Amino acid sequence: MTFNIDRRWYLQFFLLIILNLSWIGCGKKATPVPPRRYIPPAVNDLSYRLTGGTLNLAWTIPEAKKTKITRITGCMVFRAKISISDSDCQTCPAEFESVADVPLEGDRRNTDKPKDMRYSEAIEHGYRYTYKVNCYSKKGISSKDSNYIEIIY
């Protein structure tokens, strides 16, 4: 009889362990987290010069970690253009559109000096323009927005 008691005790013990393991699970339940992405640093010195009807934007590529993943290969210039007569709503979000892709040339990618970038375009009278710049890496990962430039012309 002791043999049957020991056997029942082992069976109950293993059932108890299985039940406990089914309640434990794998930890905190939450939405899945994507793999870590290294985001290129944002431009913080976007500036402009207006000469006649030509707007000249200038900025410096910020320093990034020295990895192939974060190496900046170019910048996208975005513009929001709103007619002055339609620009009564100061709190409405601007609708940006991509106006230029400014790639870094090969010799600028390999130097440690600050990289000066420029973009020019003709602008029209009677509009409020807002510009921003985003840098991107070879993998297509984009930085956060730069500082905004707003011009009423």
Q: What distinguishing features does this structure have?
A:
153 residues; Immunoglobulin-like; 3-stranded antiparallel β-sheet; 2 helices
Note down, in words, how this protein is organized:
The chain is built from two helices and seven strands; from the N terminus they run H-E-E-E-E-H-E-E-E. With 153 residues, the chain is an alpha+beta fold. It has a domain of 106 residues: Immunoglobulins (Immunoglobulin-like). Strands 4-3-6-7 form a four-stranded antiparallel sheet, with no helix packed on it. A three-stranded antiparallel sheet has the order 1-2-5, with no helix packed on it.
List the SSEs and their pairings:
Layout: H1 2-24, E1 47-51, E2 54-61, E3 72-83, E4 97-103, H2 106-109, E5 115-122, E6 127-137, E7 149-152
Antiparallel strand pairs: 1-2, 2-5, 3-4, 3-6, 6-7
Q: Give the CATH topology of the domain at 47-152.
A: Immunoglobulin-like
Arithmetic mean of pLDDT:
81
Query: Briefly, what CATH class of the domain at 47-152?
Result: Mainly Beta
The string of secondary-structure elements, in order, is HEEEEHEEE
The percentage of residues in β strands lies in 35-45%
Number of strands: 7
Give the biggest sheet.
4 strands, antiparallel
Architecture of the domain at 47-152 in CATH?
Sandwich
